[in-house]
Amino acid sequence: MTRLRITGGMVHDPANGIDGTVGDICIENGRIVATLPPDAPRLDARGLVVMPGGIDIHAHVASSSINQARRLLPEDHAGAPIAAPVLAHDDNGEVLIPRSGSGGVVPSTFTTGYRYAGLGYTTVFDAAVAPVSAREAHAQFDDTPIVDGGCYILMGNDALLHRQIAAGERERAREYVAWLLGVTRGYAIKVVNPGGIELWKRNVRAVGSLDDPVGDPRVTPRAIVETLADAATALGLPHPVHIHCNNLGLPGNVALTLDTMRALEGRRAHFTHLQFHAYGGAAGKWSSGARQITDYLATHPEASGDVGQVLFGNACTVTADGAVEYLLHASSGRKWVNVDVEVETGCGVVPYTYRDRAAVSALQWAIGLELFLLSPDPWRLVLSTDHPNGASFLSYPQLIRLLMDRSYRDAQLATVNQKLLAGSALADGIAREYSLNEIAIVTRAGPARLLGLTTKGHLGVGADADITLYAPDADRARMFETPRHVIKGGTLVVEEGQLRRAPAGARHHVRPTYDRAIERTVREFADRYFSVSLENYGA
Amino acid sequence: MAPITLTLTADLRPYGRVAADVIAPDRMATMSGAELAALPVWIARGTTGTDAGATIAARRTLPLGALFTIEGERSDVVRLRGDLRAVDALGAGMRGGTLIVEGSVGDEVGRGMAGGSIAVEGSAGHDAGRTMLGGQLTVAGDVGDRLGGPLPGASRGMMGGEIFVRGRAGREVALGVRRGLIVVGGDVEDGCGQGMLAGTVVVVGRAGGTVGEWSKRGSVIAIGGARIPPTYRFACTYRPAYLRLLYRHLRTRGIAVPEHAIAGRYLRYCGDMSELGRGEILTLDGPGDA
Q: Which of A449, A446, A440, A438 lies closest to A467 in space, CA to CA?
């Protein structure tokens, strides 16, 4: 399909200041153009809501850790076989081969692509890829159709980086970061539990402060996040450093989260799944720290975040943060995986169920909603469930309903365990309801801006033709669950609610320039410590 | 209502193994002869020769009627004849009705069955009664490994129902069983009752080594004796009343329980002490008949 005019839809394009105005969108050769000849094919969108395609800023869909999760969940897969979709011939008359798969909280690769597109999402970033397994991540993305993909590369516990920091070579670390992003075809710098995974490998269970030494007194969580935040800025990366703070999931961790934010005051940084880092109180007396986080964001425009909402039901925690997975396994008794990813990072997987009758689950659910509802700026605090950690991406429509529909939210709030909710902002009542435009910001325009994707997340001339059309429905969950049409790069992938085409998605990556001298340093290090040869490293 | 009789007439060798999970009496009970003949049977290799332009999915199945001669229709009693040793997953997911096999079957017979009964008059392959939920599975001959076990990597095996094997069984009988009864008339190999969460296993013959390791709860009764793992602790010698009731029930199911097992005293071992430790192994005090 080279040309298409979408006529008469209510357009929500917050990046261009358009809020529900009825208008036409013209598509030519996969991009949005200003005009089309009158005889161009038309798609009647009268009565439909038109938004840019959804962008998931933080999910786990294509990495070695997510394959560990798939391996760990055979029951989940046996219980949810997914038949191959019935696809139409593409415009060249070729048959697109549809693939069957399995569902559950961690669907198989093809099913992941089909289901994201079926929800109106057209771009998904995998938030944690160990450099040594980048090749595997890209291979999985190759099998995840329709959606554009990209990887954030784990660096916060990299032994070579720590050595550079210990030697006072922060500038050299920048060259290493640039080399690493290029060789792994990564998009952004990811930091998971800075220094904490390295400490976990030395049997330290939690990080006490940002100034805890990690082996060398000069290597501290503070030094690590500063080095990497500066590297992202100096290299001109489209997305700032993407930080998963220390002590995820521990009561009282909000203090350390705020310390990390203050440590990077004045520098651009993205703090991910903040819900998991916004706990006040102490063991047995957990409380919400959501307001402290949103207050900080209100006065610091250089900081951004995503929520990492928890929703009740089955989930699977998948993270590079091996220490937290040990605790989760010990407290839940569920089966687990824990991996020491040689000199780079760690990995843990524990299937988990959030229960509305459980006090901590209910508090986590409430904190996520508080972050959304107290958020000073939807452009800087965007939607995520840290799929599949807080909930599957398939629950986004339910989350959107919670944000848009106060009566639904309050009804659910009344049924959950109240033990830890006393005095929380949500229990006191928050009247805010997200508008359609705000939903378009937290699921599309905001992530695109934070990721530096200039041709995504908006419907202006020159943008990629990634567009979702919804039929308005008072039940917002139903509305967002089943888009009427989804267009990806100009191709009508979902037509009248049915997945009809599954073209391959593109890959977003960066290739910053660096001083070639760093290659010798890396090679010497790799020859001594890597289990793979440098020739087989990267993607 | 006459039973449905399926006679395997095709030579299966070109196809490798076939997965006949469509053969389930409760689902066949409402089907006409034509509908039965059209049911898809998955084949491990080979093509049908009529697949030009078809999707990949269609290429890997054959209609039931191409492999079996089908007599009768609309009955929840299904009788199978022929050499079915390469036919897997018979009775998978069945919820009722009766499946009778005149001979031996392949792997995964009765996988995930929730009701009804399967009677195999020969032997069965590996993974018989895998993830079974209810109903009865009877095998007159021997079975392979992992009787009543889980999917690979899953934490729970059989969750209900009864399995009676009159012959011997292979390794890892009752792996991860959550609930239900498994009875083996002959000996079993190593790993019987490993990782059990609950449920009961009776071995009339002798159990091998590594019995009940990593079990949380559940009972393994090895009449012919077993090598008790070091993580089990001797508790007492006693004569449990429920065993006599259980044995009488087993005799009605064609399991030859010897008289001295009914009258005898049992050594009770508790374990696995490296886990929850609420499981038990019972062995007959004194020599068994094995």
A: A440
